[in-house]
Design the sequence.
């Protein structure tokens, strides 16, 4: 019998949920986007935790969601993601050495650290001088405990917990033949950047600027309330033909700041891969739907810019709008469980 899986991506602006029937083919039963009335994506104190628990409870009740297989994303801002290169080790040797590596690369004391790691590349034994690459994801144990407790109190025992960027990369289904690609997951309060090369994650970086910065900039410049500013931003964006280009002029400074971060990431990758620089940008997340944004980024970075399509080839209740916001949730759905 096909299994129901639910993926939940808790953002500071909205909660995105997919309920998918897992059979020979995936069938989307529900695609739900609910405003996050709490305004944060992780509990900062008991009062906030209570509000988040109630929000999650209401979403599952109102939309009749299954609790049998619930997969969660962990906001990238809560974790430290590092990709390291080290001499090739066996699995047993790596298990013995990983804590020492974590001490060198993750700024969290070992007794407070919750660590996951994965071998991304292990060279053939014929090339003993070549190094292996290992993905390490660390966060404080107390952060994980508080985050999971929000869901446990709502009667949900998660089957998987994964960072937003790792889930998003899976949803994009990269192959070794793809050109080096910068992935930008543009959320409300932050933007996550990753570089994928030869189908492999090579770099992850998060900076604290997202759609809310554009909304506040619009509020201040046009003297609108938050709701009106959000509508203006979403309707006109960077389109020079709208409102005589006034909204474009208002939004360009913060947009250019984000593009500068993209340029830094691309330059860092180019310094390590001089023969094969980033040739493509892939935009995801709700903030990537700003009118005119892909075209402007293409002009500034002089490369191809695409937008994610997480529902390609799927049937069912595929959302007609805002599909870019569901990339992380779709990646969680595609995660094979052990």
Sequence:
């Amino acid at each position: 019998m096909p299994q129901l899986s639910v993926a939940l991506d808790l953002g500071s602006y909205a909660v995105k949920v997919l309920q998918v029937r897992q059979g020979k083919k995936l069938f989307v039963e529900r695609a739900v986007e609910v405003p996050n009335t709490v305004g944060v994506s992780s509990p900062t104190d008991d009062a906030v935790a209570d509000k988040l628990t109630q929000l999650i409870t209401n979403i599952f009740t109102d939309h009749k969601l299954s609790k049998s297989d619930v997969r969660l994303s962990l906001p990238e801002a809560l974790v430290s993601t590092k990709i390291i290169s080290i001499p090739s080790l066996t699995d047993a040797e790596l298990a013995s050495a990983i804590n020492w590596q974590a001490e060198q690369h993750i700024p969290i004391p070992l007794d407070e650290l919750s660590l996951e790691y994965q071998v991304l590349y292990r060279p053939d034994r014929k090339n003993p001088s070549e190094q292996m690459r290992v993905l390490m994801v660390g966060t404080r144990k107390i952060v994980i405990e508080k985050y999971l407790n929000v869901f446990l109190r709502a009667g949900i025992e998660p089957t998987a917990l994964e960072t937003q960027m790792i889930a998003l990369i899976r949803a994009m289904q990269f192959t070794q033949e793809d050109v080096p690609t910068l992935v930008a997951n543009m959320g409300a309060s932050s933007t996550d950047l990753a570089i994928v090369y030869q189908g492999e994650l090579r770099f992850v970086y998060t900076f604290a600027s997202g759609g809310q910065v554009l909304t506040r900039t619009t509020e201040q410049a046009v003297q609108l309330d938050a709701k009106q500013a959000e509508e203006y931003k979403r309707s006109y964006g960077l389109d020079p033909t709208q409102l005589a280009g006034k909204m474009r002029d208002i939004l360009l400074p913060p947009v250019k700041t984000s593009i500068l971060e993209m340029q830094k990431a691309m330059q860092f990758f180019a310094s390590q891969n001089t023969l094969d620089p980033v040739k493509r940008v892939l935009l995801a997340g709700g903030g990537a739907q700003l009118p005119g944004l892909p075209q402007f980024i293409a002009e500034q970075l002089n490369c191809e810019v695409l937008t994610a399509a997480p529902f390609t080839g799927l049937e069912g209740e595929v959302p007609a709008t805002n599909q870019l916001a569901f990339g992380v949730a779709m990646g969680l759905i595609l995660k094979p469980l052990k």
Observations:
- The longest helix spans residues 246-272.
- The chain has nine helices and 14 strands.
- The mean pLDDT is 94.
